[in-house]
């Protein structure tokens, strides 16, 4: 894949008034309790590091840099399971204000 073909989630959000971008960084071993409302309607890009998603019944799945996710229940915990910082970039639609 050439550089022109790569998807840049940051550029996607910056190029439109309809999208917003949120960056979440996790230090090695750090965990983040899953809050469904914080991730609603978002496409999540793992841009650095390695994560583990833990679900309500203990199931776990690992994702590394380059993964594209949509986070929703039954996810319970997001954990950096690697030795390097992990970074997530979430791109979602901007909420309309009344």
Query: What is the class in the CATH system?
Result: Mainly Beta
Give the percentage of residues in beta strands.
over 45%
- Tally of DSSP β-strands: 8
Strand adjacency order, main sheet: 1-8-3-6
Distance between the termini: 42 Å
What level of helicity do the residues show? 10-25%
CATH topology: Jelly Rolls
Structural class: mainly beta
| N-to-C SSE string, H for helix and E for strand | HEEHEEEEEE
Radius of gyration: 14 Å
Low-confidence stretches: none
Total number of helical segments? 2
If classified by CATH, what would the architecture be?
Sandwich
Mean pLDDT: 87
Written description of the protein model:
The protein has a single domain (3-93), classed as Jelly Rolls, CATH 2.60.120. Helices cover 10% and strands 46% of the residues. It contains two helices and eight strands. It has helices at residues 9-14, 36-39; strands at 19-26, 31-33, 42-48, 50-55, 60-64, 68-69, 75-80, 86-93. A hairpin with a 4-residue loop joins strand 4 and strand 5.
Overview in brief:
With 98 residues, the chain is mainly β. It has 2 helices and 8 strands; from the N terminus they run αββαββββββ.
List keywords for this structure.
single chain; 98 residues; mainly beta; Jelly Rolls; 4-stranded antiparallel β-sheet; 8 strands; globular
């Amino acid at each position: 894949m050439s550089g022109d073909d790569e998807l840049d989630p940051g550029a996607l959000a910056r190029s439109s008034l309809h999208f917003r971008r949120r960056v979440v960084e996790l230090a090695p071993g750090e965990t983040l309790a899953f809050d469904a409302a914080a991730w609603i309607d978002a496409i999540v890009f793992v841009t650095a590091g390695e994560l583990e998603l833990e679900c309500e019944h203990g199931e776990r799945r690992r994702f590394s840099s380059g993964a594209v996710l949509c986070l929703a229940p039954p996810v319970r915990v997001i954990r950096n399971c690697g030795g390097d910082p992990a970074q997530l970039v979430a791109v979602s639609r901007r909420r309309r204000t009344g």
